[in-house]
Amino acid sequence: MQPHDEAPDRQALLDLADLQIQGTATADQTAQLEAMLIHDPEAQREYLRYTLVHGQLGLTVPAMPDISACLPPATQSGKAVSLKSTDDRRSTWPALVAFAVAASVLVIVGIRLAREPIEPRQPIAAPAPKLQTQPMAFSYDHRKPPLGMVGTIGNRRDATGPLTLTVEQGATDFQTQSGASLRVQGPALFGINARDSGVLFRGLVHAKLSDPASRFSVTTANLRILDLGTEFEVDVIDDQHIAVHVIDGQVDVQKRIRSPLFYWNFDSPATTTADLAEAGSRLTYGSRATRTGGIVGDGAVQFDNSPDAFIDIDDGLGSTAGTGAMACSSGISIEAMFISAWSGKFKDYDEIFRKEDGEYRFLLSFQNDANVGNYAMPPVPDGPCLSFGLHLEEFGYSELDMPLDGREGRPSKADLTDGKPHHVVATYDSFSGKKSLYIDGRLCFEHQFPVGVLAISGGSAQACIGNNGWVKSEAFQGTLDEVAFYDFALTADEIAAHHRRAARGESYFAPGTTPQSVQRWRSITPVSAGTRQVLNVQTGLPTDR
Questions:
Q1: Is 293 helix (H, G, I), strand (E, B) or coil?
Q2: How far is Cα 417 from Cα 435, in angstroms, rounded to an integer?
Q3: Segments in the chain below pLDDT 50
Q4: What is d(CA 301, CA 282) in angstroms, rounded to the nearest whole number?
Q5: Looking at residue 26, what is its pLDDT?
Q6: What are the residues whose beta carbons fall under 8 Å from the beta carbon of 175, sequence distance 6 or more?
Q7: Which of 196, 227, 230 is nearest to 212 (CA)?
Q8: H or E segment at 275?
Q9: Is pTM, for the whole model, over 0.90?
Q10: Of 58, 150, 397, 466, which has the most beta carbons under 10 Å away?
Q11: What is the pLDDT of residue 70?
Q12: pLDDT of res. 470
């Protein structure tokens, strides 16, 4: 349902437009203006009329000035550019500035440059935006930060990532930024999720590194093949088997460590808010996020639905979109225990977890508003829901909004605000294409995307527990405990096991296991030059197949 794109006040829009034309708009004012325009055609028309009038009044020559150099570059893959402030030449060229600003808006709202086709999957239609009539309460972060370059497709164009190549037949060449020359042999589906790594969903990829000191890895389900030499192939045989063929050098076959990347159990012995902040060296606690008895273990955190009820996470930050420890591509899971006193009223939002990197945000929250048509995929009726928002390649940002109506196996709002502890897990798995919500160990709502669609997340914004880190206006009301974040999708069996342990008052994780691990992969076996091995995709162990 969120973020909210509601009709802005006309005078506020014109005031911001004046600042933008004059070149005195701050970054926050520019972001507010963009938020007013991005999904509101009427506001866009009003803004264009206003800026064009300014441009016409400022013209002192009969010909239209050449503004092409002032236009912000459009990104590939249909991603809109962000609105930029004008420079100090505004005093000399008022007409040029006004026309450039107006043209920039035309770029933002009207131009969509499709990727040059390789052998693309079928085009995906995003949900049409819906005009809103409610007054605008505040601005959400609608930036579309630029993504990093991941490589070059053949000799045709540079590519920003993550992206997925669909090769129906023949082969497609790809040169990565890390120096690997790839050949994807069709029929194949191969995702480039970073400058030095890829995800093979089906088919065969051949990798050759020009510099032996460089590294490139290929991930397939629960395994990663890390290059330690110069040339190798990975072939997906079926759902259970892959073949690794090393032509030159050596690779290391690694198995995923199925522990959370971040895990906060709040079992610190601290007794005051100040002590709590001290104990969480990488967390910043708002004054109304207070320690309470644990749902599991000794401690949990109570949130009182006020702006100062929040926990900012000072960890996992990246420099740009798609970077940092929370930049997940092939899968993601968010897990928590909660006791909720959410009102469920219209325009009341209770965030469990949120990271607000513009259009690459992700969130898990209770929501109730009338914006379902803007973001919900699949479409659902308006009303109270549990929402899992994530940006997916080619789809853009969308939310899995589970109606809390008590129907078709879904919980009702009353079920989740009964004063009792509940377990929630949100997952996305690019290997299955499923985006899912689990309550108390049980799958309750799901949407099927095509296999191979990569998530785009990460960046410089702090993640936040129990509130919206961007505006601090969507505080949780109740208790949160055992919050965990994973860079892969938990399985249904893992989720059920976590719930069983938590219901007994135990940690999610079995005794003797590591509840949190910065290391994400464990070496299973090396494969040397001249060797071809068939491996089980879950265990990494060789098979006779």
A1: strand
A2: 24
A3: 4-8, 53-99, 101-138, 270-281
A4: 16
A5: 75
A6: 151, 152, 181, 182
A7: 230
A8: helix 273-279
A9: no
A10: 466
A11: 30
A12: 86
Tokens at 300, concatenated? 């949990």
Residues 304, 475 contacting (CB under 8 angstroms): yes
- What are the angstrom distances between the C-alpha of 474 and each of 362, 378, 392? 15, 24, 24
3-class secondary structure, 99: helix
Both structure tokens of 429:
């798995």
Q: 3-state class of 146 per DSSP? A: coil
CA dist 135 and 129 (Å) reads 17
Quote the pLDDT of residue 214: 81
Residue 329: which of 215, 461, 197 has the closest Cα? Answer: 197
Report phi then psi at 538, rounded to 5: -90, -40
Q: Which residues pair with 323 in a beta bridge?
A: none
- Choose among 141, 142, 193, 139: nearest CA to 165: 193
40, 8 contact by CB (below 8 A): yes
User: 320-340: per-residue pLDDT in tens?
Assistant: 888 888 999 999 999 999 999
Q: Which residues contact 288 (CB under 8 A, 6 or more apart)?
A: 303, 304, 306, 308, 309, 475
Which DSSP helix (H) or strand (E) runs through 391?
strand 385-392
Q: Which of 221, 227, 206, 216 is nearest to 255 (CA)?
A: 221
DSSP string, 60-75: -SSSPP--GGGSPPPP
| Distances 283 to 6, 20, 277, 315, 350 between C-alpha atoms, Å | 33, 36, 7, 8, 20
> Residues with Cβ < 8 Å from 267, sequence gap 6 or more?
294, 297, 298, 299
Nearest to 97 by CA among 145, 12, 25: 25
